[in-house]
Specification:
Blueprint lengths: L4 H9 L4 H30 L1 H4 L6 H32 L2 H20 L4 H4 L2 H29 L7 H30 L3 H5 L1 H5 L1 H12 L6 H10 L6 H8 L1 H31 L4 H29 L1 H23 L4 H28 L7 H18 L1 H11 L5 H19 L13
Length: about 450
């Protein structure tokens, strides 16, 4: 089951080979498609679902309920990481990537055809939540597989850059979702809330077909194939082994990742809703969110490459300190009721800060776990952070604004606490960029 020697050497020496280009392309494009689906829901939760599925609750509670369904997907992500991680550590990375894409695409298309509350009553939000949970399970398995597919094929000195292709799929998928929603919103006008919002969800079917063609051509990772002969001898399921032998690593890497996901939840979900609710033009908000996503992708690749040179911990520490210093000004700008304020906040906060944190994070987490439980361990940490950092922050921020009588200072304090905890956690980890993956 091992790869031919020529392929091993090719993937060990350079990223610029036919096989590596296909692998990196698969990680990037597959992640773009999966995160298009996942973040499309977040955009719709900010702009549509409170009026379509929860309009009978009133403005404040309807938005809270909409964000609660958003959180349901994030709660399901660790479960997806556990399920897909188990089989990914036992059967291989590639098979899980194909399955996660099919699961995500099916759920997204069904949301596009879901009747509203006015049409079928309480069944509509119930089914919406169930489909969102399926999305969460699917994307929970996607990140670990896409990251490890790139990381475990890459040469040692370029692992950070290779792993960033999976992480860049997040903002790139978000950009694609934002552009599609913005275009459909402009084309359908007043009909956007009636039926136009469904178009981006149904379009997912075409993207899934493209992604499947690409993913089916990618080979299993050499590191896993080397392990494969020994896998049958492992007595404990991967999750049990992670919790028994690596609990500290799970906790520390999860906390270290929280700041990255809090940026996403506050800036691109809660912030979008706050801006539109205060009267800022919806198309303008979506367009600037798209600009920020472009910046995020560029900074993500740059910081990942930098982490290959100076280390993951150094890059994450620098980005974390910058985030702490900028948190309060960014929250104020985000909610000042102007398009320029939103634009500055989302480009700096989402584009620069989140991009710098996103670049090294895939390699940073994955390098902390041994090959036999890497899919499970890395997924558990990353998806746990996504659940807390992005899944609950829009809902928590909405509650904090209500508690502060409309003020946003409590949201800024909340964000700073998360960022400081992440900084401490980063400093408690070992530097993984110099480690051999099969010796971790």
């Amino acid at each position: 089951m091992n790869l031919p020697t020529s392929r091993k050497l090719a993937t060990a020496d350079s990223l610029n080979t036919k096989d590596m280009r296909r692998i990196l392309g698969s990680s990037l494009i597959g992640s773009i498609i999966e995160y298009y689906d996942f973040i499309l829901y977040a955009t719709a939760a900010s702009l549509v679902f409170d009026r379509v599925f929860f309009a009978n609750l009133g403005p404040g509670l309807s938005l809270f309920a909409s964000f609660a369904t958003l959180a349901a997907g994030y709660v399901a992500r660790p479960l997806g990481g556990i399920i897909f991680g188990h089989f990914g550590d036992r059967l291989g990375r590639k098979q899980m990537l194909v399955l996660s894409m099919l699961l995500m695409g099916g759920a997204t298309v069904l949301i596009g055809f879901l009747p509203t509350t006015d049409q079928i009553g309480a069944a509509a939000p119930i089914v919406l939540v169930l489909l969102r949970i399926i999305q969460g399970i699917a994307v929970g398995g996607e990140w670990g597989g896409a990251t490890l597919m790139a990381l475990e094929h890459a040469p040692a000195k370029k692992r950070g850059f290779a792993a960033a292709f999976a992480n860049a799929g997040g903002p790139a998928g978000g950009l694609l979702a934002t552009l599609v929603v913005s275009a459909v919103s402009a084309l359908t006008g007043d009909q956007f809330l009636v039926w136009g919002w469904r178009i981006p969800f149904v379009l997912s079917a075409l993207l899934i077909l493209i992604g499947m063609v690409i993913r089916l051509k990618v080979a299993e990772t050499p590191v896993f194939q080397k392990l494969d002969a020994e896998a049958a001898k492992v007595k404990h399921p991967p999750l049990m082994e992670v919790l028994r032998s690596h609990p500290r690593v799970v906790v520390v890497t999860l906390v270290a990742t929280l700041g990255f996901y809090a940026c996403q939840g506050l800036l691109t979900v809660w912030g979008v809703s706050m801006a539109v609710a205060s009267g800022v033009d919806r198309s303008g908000v979506l367009n600037w969110k798209g600009v920020a996503a472009v910046v995020t992708v560029a900074v993500c690749f740059y910081s990942a490459r930098l982490s290959d040179r100076i280390g993951r911990r150094a890059v994450l520490t620098g980005a974390g300190v910058a985030a702490v210093l900028l948190a309060y000004p960014l929250i104020v700008l985000l909610t000042n009721g102007t398009l320029w304020g939103f634009a500055v906040a989302v480009v700096i906060g989402n584009g620069l800060v989140q991009g710098a944190l996103a670049g090294p994070i895939g390699a940073f987490i994955s390098e902390q776990f041994p090959t036999g439980v890497r899919y499970t361990g890395a997924s558990l940490s990353y998806q746990g952070a996504s659940m807390i950092g992005a899944g609950f922050t829009p809902m928590i921020a909405t509650g904090l604004v209500l508690a502060a009588g409309g003020g946003v200072w409590m949201v800024a304090v909340f964000w700073i606490v998360i960022l400081v905890a992440g900084l401490v956690a980063v400093r408690l980890t070992r530097e993984g960029s110099s480690l051999k993956l099969d010796a971790v």
